[in-house]
């Protein structure tokens, strides 16, 4: 079965942070800036983070999970550390031994 290909055009327009959020450039900043206020232009210079609904839409193009702007880091499923994994396996073994007796 062939591999899924990520959308290369989208990858060139966003940058994914270490926490899983997608950053993108603000719209309305490239030209026609003479009538825009200085405050507005300064705010447009910053990179923005995608909202939850947009992040969900882009996940399908990138074949990976993303976090939205308002989604807390606690909602992400984290892989357990090796120590936590060993502790969980020991608990499973102890529970299985208790039910087998």
Structural overview:
This protein has helices at residues 8-11, 38-45, 52-62, 82-100; strands at residues 14-16, 22-24, 48-49. The chain has 101 residues and is mainly α. The protein has a single domain (1-71), classed as Factor Xa Inhibitor. Strands 1-2-3 form a 3-stranded antiparallel sheet, with no helix packed on it. A hairpin with a 5-residue loop joins strand 1 and strand 2. It is elongated and about 80 Å long. The mean pLDDT is 88.
Number of helices: 4
Largest sheet: 3 strands, antiparallel
Coarse structural class: mainly alpha
The number of domains: 1
> What is the overall shape?
elongated
If strands are numbered along the chain, what order do they take across the biggest sheet? 1-2-3
Architecture per CATH nomenclature, i.e. the level-2 architecture: Irregular
Average pLDDT confidence is 88
Q: Give the amount of beta strand, in percent.
A: 5-15%
**Terminal Cα span:** 46 Å
Q: At the first level of CATH, what is the class?
A: Few Secondary Structures
Radius of gyration: 22 Å
Could you name the CATH topology? Factor Xa Inhibitor
Number of strands: 3
Helix content: 40-55%
- Listing every helix as H and every strand as E from the N terminus to the C terminus, the arrangement reads HEEHEHH
Poorly predicted regions:
none
């Amino acid at each position: 079965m062939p591999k899924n290909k990520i959308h290369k055009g989208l990858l060139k327009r966003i940058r994914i942070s270490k926490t899983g959020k997608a950053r993108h450039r603000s719209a309305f900043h490239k030209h026609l800036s003479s009538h825009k206020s200085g405050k507005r232009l300064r705010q447009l210079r910053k990179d923005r983070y995608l909202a939850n609904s947009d992040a969900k839409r882009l996940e399908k193009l990138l074949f990976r999970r993303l976090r939205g702007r308002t989604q807390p880091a606690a909602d992400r499923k984290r892989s357990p550390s090796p120590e936590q994994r060993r502790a969980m396996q020991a608990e499973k073994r102890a529970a299985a031994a208790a039910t087998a007796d």
